[in-house]
């Protein structure tokens, strides 16, 4: 089962995390935001393959923090997709800037924020309500 909390980033109001070790609640009434991170390779695949172990270690770090929910290669292999959750877009953009593929100039990210109003049962902790002005 998915945890109903995600680790908070810098600048987050400490009251939101409470006594959960820096974890922010996700769900209908949470302040956590969902993101689709689409990375597109801008360099040769042989260089991508060389840095793949570093990229996977970077992914593992952000899975452990609760920021990443799912990820994988696109088909055809011209990049990848990451499903992420965070306290704001700036924090997610800061995370993507540390990807070894980015720091080596091998990929660019497109960050899309969305409200997950429907999910599979196992992801229900990430389900959110639309803001009143968005209805």
Structure description:
The structure is a single chain. The chain is of the alpha+beta class. It has one domain (5-12, 31-117): Alpha-Beta Plaits. 27% of the residues lie in helices and 27% in strands. It contains four helices and six strands, in the order E-H-E-E-H-E-E-H-H-E. The chain has helices at 14-17, 45-64, 89-97, 100-103, and strands at 5-7, 23-25, 33-41, 68-73, 79-86, 107-114. Strands 4-5-3-6 form a four-stranded antiparallel sheet, with helices on one face. It has a two-stranded antiparallel ribbon with strand order 1-2. A hairpin with a 5-residue loop joins strand 4 (68-73) and strand 5 (79-86). The radius of gyration is 16 Å and the shape is elongated. It starts with a strand and ends in a 21-residue tail after the last strand.
